[in-house]
Amino acid sequence: MTKSSKKSWPKWLRDDGSVVACTEKVKVMAENFDELKQLAQDALEDGLLMEVSEQQMRDALHHMVDELINPYSSNPNSAEPNQSGPSQSGPNQSEPNPAKQ
Q1: 33/15 Cα distance (integer angstroms)
Q2: What is the domain partition of the chain in residue ranges?
């Protein structure tokens, strides 16, 4: 990925709406999101090369993000994974799981 193609990430905000202005925090967030974007891009390309539907790959990636848990939340409901999502995004249930054999 070239520098010119890098996405400009949003201005990071706290829950109260104030801006996270610490240069080091903003730098870490940008690095984390750059890495996540590249990893997601690689996974998408791998899936496409293995003839997985592009839409299913995108749905699975969205579902994965929706399932992330906030371990710092004081709201017990926000720590529960979202149970909705594409039913086809998980492993193919018709293929045997070698660990279970």
Answers
A1: 19
A2: 7-71
Cα distances (angstroms) measured from residue 43 to each of 27, 37, 49 = 24, 10, 10
Amino acid at the residue 41: Q
CA end-to-end span of the chain: 42
Question: Each residue of 60-71: b (16+ CB within 10 Å) or e?
Answer: bbebeeeeeeee
The amino acid occupying position 11 is: K
Name residues whose C-beta falls within 8 Å of residue 6's C-beta, 6 or more positions apart in sequence: 34
DSSP state of 13: B
pLDDT in tens, the chain (101 residues): 444 455 689 999 999 999 999 999 999 999 999 999 999 999 999 999 999 999 999 999 999 999 999 999 887 666 554 444 444 444 444 444 444 44
